[in-house]
Amino acid sequence: MRNNLLFRLRRFFTATIWLSRHWANHPPTHRIGKGVLAAVILCRALFTLHAQQAPQSSLAMFNPFQWSPAYAGLRGNTGANLGARLQWTGLEGGPSTQTANFQAPFEILRGGLGLKLSNDALGAANSQRAVLAYSYHLPLGEGMLGLGIGAGAIQQVLDGTSLRTPEGFYQGNITDHRDNLLSAGRMQGMAPVFEAGAYFQNRWIEVGLCATNLNRPGVDMGNFTTTQIPALFFNTSLNFDLSPAFSLSPSLWVRSDGMQTQTDFSLMFRYKDNISAGASLRGYDAESLDAASFITSFQLSEKLRLAYAYDLSLSPLRQVNNGSHELLLMYALPKIFGRLRLPPVIYNPRNL
Predict the structure, then answer these.
(1) What is the DSSP letter of 346?
(2) What does the alpha-carbon distance between residue 349 and residue 352 come to, in Å, rounded to a whole number?
(3) Conformation bin of residue 117: beta by default, left when phi > 0, alpha when psi is -120 to 50
(4) Is the CA virtual torsion 211, 130, 61, 58 positive or negative?
(5) pLDDT digits (tens, 9 = 90+) for 135-188
(6) Nearest CA-CA partner of 113 in 141, 152, 78, 165
(7) Is 32 helix (H, G, I), strand (E, B) or coil?
(8) Angular region, 134: left φ>0, alpha ψ -120 to 50, beta rest
């Protein structure tokens, strides 16, 4: 219970803050309906395991390195990505995520190196993660296999001033949760994290498998400890050339922590690798159905590309949010670091 406390707190306090700020804005005739909806949200927050530890993304197919260390340098060029996601707009305390990563091939290391950063906020909770990754590249048939490992740290912060408990006392500058576990101030802690993965790609197919939080990092928040549960990420995508100008790429992303599994199936059309557009569906049954995403990307210049996704909520939360927005800016250039030296030239007189 204590190990999973942050799971429940993040969802519970997001719903609590939303309820407290919106309750007074509706006349009595509307409050009953709002109360029923709030009760459903609070019950799900407290008693279900559908917590969101890993940040959500609708543009994962454009940014594989953010999820797998094995992708570092695998495409053969240097790349840097900046991403931002605002989830469930209109819902107070909804998740917001920012990501940044840099990766490049290093021939002298027989692979690639990369650094990835993320900041994920949800209600009163905030989580930052930094991971340094290495991928060993192994030619396999007509493609390349990357075997990667990553190591870094995670920091979690819980803002006690934003929390409200049923028995708490809140008046003026006084914040008293009347709970031995919760502080009225800022609670934070840090722990190491490790991950590993494999990624294969050639002209027609990409397949990746990655495991995060391998060491089940426990973050000591002072009065309690939170645990990051190991999670498994699987992705695969195909590329079909419909004509010299058009191509079609279906892809599947699966995320699971052993208790909850979520899928994203997408279908993207590309025109000369300059413009792409498509859609994806998150969920595979009535309980997991979450959103339909509409995705597009544009090549802004030779080295710069921009992708955007809008998520239309399909879950019960659609009643209290206006969808999600996500942007990803991608920079790439054909540069390889640490090139291997060519062998010395041996002149053959017969060929002079």
Answers:
(1) -
(2) 5
(3) beta
(4) positive
(5) 999 999 999 999 999 999 999 998 887 788 888 888 878 888 888 777 777 889
(6) 78
(7) helix
(8) beta
Contact predicate 323/314, CB 8 Å:
no
Structure tokens that stand for 147 in this block = 């075997």
- All structural domains of the chain, each given as residue ranges with its CATH number in brackets, are 5-333 (2.40.160.40)
Residues in the chain: 352
Residues 86 and 93: their CA atoms lie apart, in Å, by 11
Cα separation, 127 vs 120, in Å, equals 5
Confidence at 340, pLDDT banded by 50, 70, 90: low
Phi/psi at 8 (5° precision): -70, -40
State both tokens at 187. Answer: 């609670």
Sign of CA dihedral 171, 176, 179, 181: positive
From CA 210, how far away is CA 231, in angstroms rounded? Answer: 8
The model carries a pTM of 0.80
Distances (CA, A) of 311 to 51, 58, 91, 219, 275: 19, 8, 14, 32, 20
- Residue 347, classed as helix, strand or coil, is coil
Question: Distances from the Cα of 292 to the Cαs of 92, 265, 280, in angstroms?
Answer: 21, 10, 6
